[in-house]
Specification:
mainly alpha, 66 residues, 76% helix, globular
């Protein structure tokens, strides 16, 4: 498994925990909003910063997509 995929799995699990939801619910939300690829492709930025910064960015992406 690639580093990107490993991090994506970690990110979605941690984000789900942050939101008190399950990873499958979060993934469905991202898929429905067509954000999954965008978030996956942010690996270079997200894996080098505090995870909370990634959460803030994802929250912004979700808000902008609605």
């Amino acid at each position: 498994m690639s580093d990107e995929m490993n991090f994506f799995i970690f990110l979605i699990e941690q984000y789900a925990k942050y939101k008190n939801k399950t990873a499958d619910i979060i993934l469905k939300q991202w898929d429905d909003l067509k954000l999954t690829d965008t978030i996956y492709n942010m690996y270079e930025l997200y894996h080098t910063e505090a995870i909370e910064n990634a959460f803030k960015d994802i929250d912004r992406l979700i808000s902008d997509a609605k």
